[in-house]
Write a structure and sequence with these properties.
Layout: E1 4-10, H1 14-26, E2 32-35, E3 40-42, H2 46-51, E4 61-63, E5 73-75, E6 79-83, E7 88-91, E8 96-104, E9 109-110, H3 118-121, E10 127-128, H4 136-145, E11 149-155, H5 165-179, E12 186-192, H6 201-213, E13 217-219, E14 222-228, E15 233-240, E16 243-250, E17 253-257, E18 260-261, H7 264-267, E19 295-297, H8 310-328, E20 343-350, E21 353-359, H9 378-396
Parallel strand pairs: 1-2, 1-8, 2-5, 8-19, 10-17, 11-12, 11-17, 12-13
Antiparallel strand pairs: 3-4, 6-7, 7-8, 9-18, 14-15, 15-16, 20-21
Helix pairs in contact: 1-8
Bound molecules: flavin-adenine dinucleotide (FAD).
Length: 401
């Protein structure tokens, strides 16, 4: 196997495939490899609609081989060590691969183990999560078979991918219960480690009204710390002005968005920010590493703040590609391209209803369409159900962004 590449991309998910495709389009002579262990590529935003019973899980997965751009090498392995001082990564087989430029986009790690009892019970006993391809169908099973009682939805307080996904499925569930006439005899509760529903004040105000419309009980600064699937009990740690307090709540179904952090291999590498989450230490505007100038990072693993969405990746790709090509071609005159922190949360607030929240680093609304973003719309539901998946597979992953 060849052991040196001009550009080595770690992770062949949303960001890795989009970047490799766009780089090839811009310069077909580049010698690029993608390191990715999975032979499947997932359209993760679709998992909300799988959990809501709108999509079948099979609509969200395709063969990775069909999306590795022509002329790009695919090393089907995981990186087990980074040595950026010497421009080396070590892959699972033990081989060392060297590079001129490195792009790190290996996503997040789902830290199920940080909630006591959760790894043992996820996917059964009424404990579900849209955060995995394998468990998203069980979410709909829980919603469909719910006959009233307590439905809990939880969100970890740290940064998670698609920070709105825990709420999206809650509104779909509440709408399902309403349509089946069992919402009145159901207690739907949201426990979030965050101090509010969304960091953008205008959207937060709308979401408070939507939650009230369904009669949802909201609990802020409340992190799930323990689950007992057998007894159907969830334990939350509530942070109050006068300290912490634990609350045990009985449930009939519990949807979980677990704590997340950078994959351990990143966290324990010289590339990481030195904190417990260990995201890649990039300049959030240029996406270039703060210490290693031949290293770039984007997507969920990059330390760009609370922007962990595929929509953010869509805006980051052209920025990273321009800055990487400038570095390769040693062009500095033009000045770098800058990422403004754009991210988007398409909030499914009911079946056929969607509130499209798009905003930047400073929580400033950035609507793509000239429409009031505080309004729930059927047109946005159609966009998310039909257009965006098509755009993802046919434009974004082909580097046409
Ligand atoms: C339930 C849910 C709903 C969502 N909804 C939306 C939405 O509505 N809109 C939106 O824009 N975004 C949404 N997202 C978020 C979006 O899917 C992610 O932000 C996006 O996929 C991030 O792309 P990425 O390339 O950084 O990570 P990923 O696409 O997760 O790819 C990371 C890749 O790295 C690989 N990898 C991991 N470790 C290693 C290693 N050691 N070596 C090599 N490769 C490795 C993995 O196998 C994976 O293929 C949602 C996500 C979920 C789970």
């Amino acid at each position: 196997m060849k052991r040196h590449y001009q550009v080595l991309i770690i992770g062949g998910g949303t960001a890795g495939i989009s970047v490799s495709a766009k780089l090839r389009r811009r310069n077909p002579r580049l010698d690029i490899a993608v390191v990715e262990p999975s032979d499947k590529h997932y359209y993760q935003p679709g998992w909300t609609l799988v959990g809501g019973g709108v999509f079948d899980a099979s609509q969200t997965v395709r063969d990775e081989a069909d999306y590795i751009p022509q002329g790009v090498s695919w090393l089907r392995d995981s990186v087990s060590e980074f040595d950026p001082e010497n421009n080396i990564v070590v892959i699972g087989s033990g081989e060392k691969i060297t590079y001129d430029f490195l792009v790190v986009c290996c996503g997040v790690q789902l830290d199920w183990h940080l909630v006591k009892g959760l790894p043992e019970t996820i996917g059964k006993n009424g404990v579900c999560s849209n955060y995995l391809f394998n468990t998203a169908p069980y979410t709909y099973e829980c919603i469909r078979t719910f006959q009233g009682g307590r439905a809990l939805f939880s969100q970890s307080g740290g940064l998670i991918k698609c920070g709105a996904a825990p709420q999206k499925i809650m509104y779909l569930a509440a709408d399902n219960f309403r349509r089946r006439g069992i919402l009145q005899q159901s207690g739907v509760s949201f426990f979030t480690g965050k101090p509010g529903l969304l960091r953008v004040p205008e959207i937060n105000a709308e979401l408070m009204k939507i939650a009230a419309r369904y009669g949802i009980n909201l609990h802020f600064n409340a992190n799930l710390v323990e689950v007992n699937g057998e007894t159907k009990e969830a334990v939350f740690e509530m942070t109050k002005a006068d300290g912490k307090e634990r609350l045990t709540v009985q449930f009939d179904m519990l949807h979980v968005a677990p704590p997340m952090s950078a994959p351990d291999v990143i966290k324990h590498s010289p590339l990481a920010v030195k904190d417990p989450f260990g995201w890649v230490d990039v300049n959030r505007d240029t996406l270039q590493h703060n210490s290693y100038k031949n290293v770039f990072s984007l997507g969920d693993v990059a330390n760009t703040g609370d922007t962990k969405t595929g929509a953010a990746v869509m805006k980051q790709v052209p920025v990273l590609v321009k800055n990487l090509l400038s570095a390769i071609e040693m062009k500095t005159a033009e000045g770098p391209a800058l990422y403004n922190g754009y991210t988007s949360c398409p909030l499914t607030t009911g079946y056929g209803k969607l509130l499209m929240a798009e905003f930047d680093h400073d929580n400033k609304l950035m609507p793509t369409f000239p429409l009031d973003p505080r309004k729930e719309r059927y047109s946005m539901w159609l966009l998310v159900k039909y257009f965006i998946p098509w755009f993802y597979w046919n434009r974004m992953l082909r580097g046409k962004i």
